[in-house]
Specification:
The complex is a heterodimer.
Chain A lengths: L16 H8 L2 H15 L10 E3 L6 E3 L5
Antiparallel strand pairs in A: 1-2
Chain B lengths: L2 H11 L1 H26 L4 H8 L3 H7 L9 H11 L10 H10 L16 H4 L6 E5 L2 E5 L1 E3 L14 E3 L2 H13 L1
Helix pairs in contact in B: 1-2, 1-6, 3-4, 3-5
Classes of the chains: A alpha+beta, B mainly alpha.
């Protein structure tokens, strides 16, 4: 069981915005995204990781990865 | 749907995804493990560089999941720095998928140093017991059975006597000759 679990954002209209974005990017970028989430899901502390940054307001954060 | 089934579906969708997935796992999970091992050993990058006979810049790049240009020689040096082994080998996708889907916490990526490696305590070489009686050599078969070591996905050989009843019979027969 992973330490972290990622959930998609579902808009009031019922759209899964992250899934829609994911399905629209090339397979190479999908793989990078998948493995980036996996590597974050097993880490207890994300502080200092290059894949993650806290944007500092309202708990908003970003996940970063390079593809291609 | 299990994580393994989901991963299988993605891998089955295209060869392009499979290639990219392997590249991403190697590129991201090895730096992740190096970083986890360094914290496990309470090493700074400078200390690991010294233990590995590399520069701190090389260690810094080795922990960068976006670098993607690590050489086998560097990985072998880093393994030496942690006093553990590094193996690079080709495997079927199913093996990669099982390992990847079952990986849940960073603890599973920790590796003991050689002098703390309990795997050798549990592990004994498989052997065949034999005895010569009246010019006839009798062999007792041993087989390997899986057991859980440090990594739950790894099976290691452990000897045990296959059939103790047969052993008794053989011994009795040998003694009766």
């Amino acid at each position: 069981m992973a330490v972290w679990r990622f959930m998609d954002y579902c808009s009031p209209a019922g759209n899964k915005l992250i899934e829609e974005w994911y399905l629209d990017i090339p397979p190479e970028a999908q793989a990078e995204f998948d493995v980036t989430l996996k590597s974050l899901s097993i880490r207890e502390n994300w502080r200092g990781l290059s894949e993650f940054d806290n944007l500092g307001r309202n708990g908003l954060c970003e996940i970063r990865f390079k593809a291609g | 749907m299990s994580a393994l089934s989901k991963l299988h579906d993605k891998l089955a969708r295209s060869k392009q995804y499979r290639e990219a997935f392997v590249a991403s796992v190697v590129k991201r999970m090895i730096p992740t493990q190096i970083s986890i091992l360094r914290k496990q050993h309470d090493y700074t990058q400078a200390r690991l560089a010294k233990e590995s006979n590399l520069t701190q810049g090389v260690i810094s790049r080795a922990e960068d999941p976006d670098y993607g240009n690590l050489t086998v020689n560097t990985l072998v040096r880093i393994a030496a720095g942690f006093d553990c082994a590094f193996i690079g080998r080709f495997v079927p996708f199913s093996e990669l998928a099982h390992w990847y889907a079952n990986l849940g916490t960073e603890t599973e990526l920790r590796v003991p140093r050689f002098d703390e490696d309990l795997g050798f305590i549990e592990r004994k070489e498989p052997r065949t017991a034999s005895m010569a009686t009246g010019g006839v050599e009798i062999s007792i078969k041993m087989e390997a059975e899986p057991y859980l070591g440090f990594e739950r996905s790894i099976t290691r050989p452990r000897p045990r006597i296959l059939d103790t009843e047969s052993l008794g019979t053989i011994t009795a027969a040998a003694g009766g000759r």
